[in-house]
Design goal:
The protein is of the alpha+beta class and 447 residues long. The chain has an 8-stranded mixed beta sheet. The chain has a 3-stranded antiparallel beta sheet with strand order 5-7-6. A hairpin with a 4-residue loop joins strand 12 and strand 13. Helix 4 packs antiparallel against helix 5 and helix 8 crosses helix 13. The longest helix is centred in the N-terminal third of the chain and has 37 residues. 40% of the residues are buried.
Length: 447
């Protein structure tokens, strides 16, 4: 794990196109106050003065560079004409001017590179703009409950999943720590089987009932991929990096969303709905001291990810559909949950609107996040240069990207264990998982 350099495609001379990829610089020029208000709702000070100053410098230098290049080309032609007329004095003067212009072009080019890199750095560190209907708030206390489903089970003295797993002899944090350190777990026997059953159940549900296409993607990706989904450069510390410079995916969102990077997708093929079951790897650098007990926050875990690629006009409807697809898993497992609309201060960096699903955990007597479903608008698409094109149209548009957990497998296992426990420490298998457990109806004891 280490800090990341700029993505490979952004090394060296920065281009104006790359600088504009994070946010629409023309829209910022047209209405800087709207951008500053939006970023202020996410806790940021005014950003557009610095952006517009870098933009002004870049445009001035680009104009100067184009003028010098044009004059150099013109003077080079005149040298040939002067020599044809055997006017050595004119030719000599023009050659001196071309030499001076060459030096000027190099100097102005370097300064233009600096301005473009400055603009790019300024823009790439700024989050997405929240949608108009996202509530304003500083942190999770500003989130709004959209709905809830199910009644929390009444358990007289509920155990947490750690005690339940230890009592069954099927959850071993000590063995995991000996080989890997903290925030890892070894599951055995019935719990290992139930984890696998949960994952397969989720995949089958999303592919067979909700129309998602199953994908088996790479788990190692290059700089460009994590930059495209906005984990880089801001969140490099939250990732694991290999010795050859690749990154272990923190979520299959990275691999699935990048399937359309640098592509123009026909609009008639959208929406594109993708799902994958993968291990996910996170350093949890920003989670020191949080959820150190148990499986809630680990360095390695399985997740069924949902990703949708849509046209701009489809994304809001698709967002609601994706939320419903994730909620359906919890309903089928009969786990009480609530759906929360996140406020501006609690949304992820790339999101313009996010719903969190929070499942009831009896041991904590509260709801805990089990899925986060976000509409990123064109924010990621700009970073990936992912576009769509309508049949018969010449122009293209940036696609909209959406992603969500459908669901986090480990947290779902935790929720099942705690909500389906009995006083003897056995875990009943939810009805929806029976086909995947081959007759096993309880974990612990017989049956």
């Amino acid at each position: 794990m280490c800090l990341a350099p700029l993505p490979t495609r952004l090394k060296g001379r920065a281009s104006p196109k790359a600088a504009q990829a994070m946010h629409d610089i023309r829209a910022i020029r047209d209405d800087p106050d709207a951008y500053d208000r939006a970023w202020a709702s996410r806790g940021l000070s005014p950003q557009t003065p610095a952006i517009l100053e870098w933009d002004r410098q870049l445009r001035v230098l680009q104009t100067e560079l184009q003028s010098a290049q044009s004059r150099r080309n013109e003077a080079s032609k005149l040298i040939g004409q002067a020599k044809a007329k055997r006017d050595e004095a004119a030719a000599s003067g023009l050659m001196a001017e071309v030499a001076q212009l060459k030096e000027k072009i190099e100097d102005v080019g370097v300064r233009a590179d600096v301005a473009a890199a400055g603009l790019q750095t300024q823009l790439e560190q700024l989050p997405n703009l929240p949608a108009a209907d996202v509530p304003t708030g500083a942190d999770e206390h500003g989130n709004v409950e959209a709905r809830r489903w199910g009644e929390p089970f009444s358990l007289p003295s509920p155990k947490d999943h750690v005690d339940l797993g230890a009592g069954l002899g099927m959850m071993d944090f000590e063995a995991a720590a000996r080989m890997s350190g903290a925030r890892f777990v070894v599951l055995r026997q019935g719990l290992a089987r139930m984890e696998r059953a949960i994952a397969q159940f989720m995949l089958d549900m999303q592919t067979q009932e909700h129309g998602y296409i199953e994908v088996s993607p790479p788990l190692l990706v290059r700089d460009e991929a994590v930059f495209g989904t906005a984990q880089l450069p801001k969140f490099a510390d939250d990732l694991f990096r290999t010795t050859d410079g690749r990154w272990l995916i923190p979520t299959a969102e990275v691999s699935l969303t990048n399937l359309v990077r640098e592509q123009i997708t026909p609009e008639e093929e959208l929406p594109l709905r993708l799902t994958a079951l993968t291990p996910c790897f996170r350093s949890e650098a920003g989670a020191s001291g949080k959820d150190t007990r148990g499986m809630i926050r680990q360095h390695q875990f399985y997740k069924v990810e949902l990703v949708a690629i849509t046209t701009p006009d489809q994304s809001e409807v698709e967002h609601e559909r994706m939320v419903a697809s994730a909620e359906a898993v919890l309903k089928r497992l009969e786990l009480p949950f609530r759906t929360m609309l996140l406020c501006t201060g609690d949304m992820g960096f790339a999101s313009r609107k996010t719903f969190d699903l929070e499942v009831w955990l009896p041991s904590q007597q509260t709801y805990r996040e089990i899925s986060s479903i976000s509409n990123c608008g064109d924010f990621q698409a700009r970073r990936m240069d992912a576009r769509c094109k309508a049949a018969g149209e010449k122009g293209t548009r940036f696609v909209h990207t959406l992603n969500g957990s459908g669901l986090a497998v480990g947290r779902t296992l935790v929720a099942v264990m705690e909500n389906y426990q009995d006083e003897g420490g056995r875990i009943a298998v939810p009805q929806a998982l029976h086909p995947y457990m081959r007759g096993v109806t309880h974990i612990g004891g017989e049956g």
